[in-house]
Amino acid sequence: MYQFAYHRPDSVAAAAAQLAADSDAKALAGGQTLLPTMKQRLAAPSAIVDLGKIAGLAGISREGEAIVIGAMTRHADVATNAAVHQAIPALAELAEGIGDPQVRNKGTIGGSLANNDPAADYPAAVLALNATIVTNKREIAADAFFKGLFETALEPGELIVKVRFPIPQKAAYQKFPNPASRYALVGVFVAKTSGGVRVAVTGAGANGVFRANAIEAALASNFSPSALAGLTIPASGLNSDIHADAAYRAHLIGVLAKRAVAAAG
């Protein structure tokens, strides 16, 4: 493997400074995306900034009407945490369906969100639950965080510290997984809150995760699967690849949305 510098800072400030000083440096959280792409020589960072020894970046707590999850919290911990199960069981179920046990025990929520893979599960939860991404510099609303394929609002030297999920009245996540990778061919997260209904779709958008406005409008006055009867999802703007074409993904969005509403109900 090619040479690169390796840093293991003991604070968020030190990690941010190292990343800001080198535009080619990459932060290492769980390594479930970065390390494979480096092995395949699809990524060649000049330096790795390992976040694994920074105290306080992992953990889950309930703060009022929100579940707060540290950026370095593993998927397996989200899946098994009692507070998450009690307050937002849909989030625990989503985490349980990520990858395989090896991925769930290494991958982190912060790493997943910072990478913003268009087929990842967490972006759908963040967008549908209207979560807030807290960084070392600011707080970013979910609607402003995701900018496109593998793109986010994070600036150079900016690191996710934690994610704050408001507790919904009802919520559920349904996905049609790729049988090999467990990534979502299509995933739909539905949430009903005091502020209305939010629905987010992952795996289908040609530009990454997005809110399904037509489904939200249909569910606003009638939160039931019957409200989606006859609703047609257009294939325009959806992804086509070797696994599924846009028309098939459009069909799956409608099917999974109905299932999610039924599960949430």
What would you note in describing this structure?
A hairpin with a 7-residue loop joins strand 13 and strand 14 (210-211). This protein is 32% helix and 25% strand. It is built from eleven helices and 14 strands. The strands form four sheets. A five-stranded antiparallel sheet has the order 4-5-10-6-7. It has a four-stranded antiparallel sheet with strand order 11-12-13-14, sandwiched between helices. The longest helix has 19 residues, at 246-264. The protein has 265 residues and is of the alpha+beta class. Among the domains are: 1-53, Uridine Diphospho-n-acetylenolpyruvylglucosamine Reductase, domain 2 (2-Layer Sandwich), CATH 3.30.43.10; 170-264, Enolase-like, domain 1 (2-Layer Sandwich).
Strand content: 15-25%
CATH architecture descriptor name of the domain at 170-264? 2-Layer Sandwich
Q: State the end-to-end distance.
A: 51 Å
Overall outline: globular
The average pLDDT is 96
Task: Name the CATH class of the domain at 170-264.
Answer: Alpha Beta
The largest beta-sheet arranges its strands as 4-5-10-6-7
Task: Output the structural class.
Answer: alpha+beta
Unreliable stretches, pLDDT < 50, 5 or more residues?
none
Provide the gyration radius in Å.
18 Å
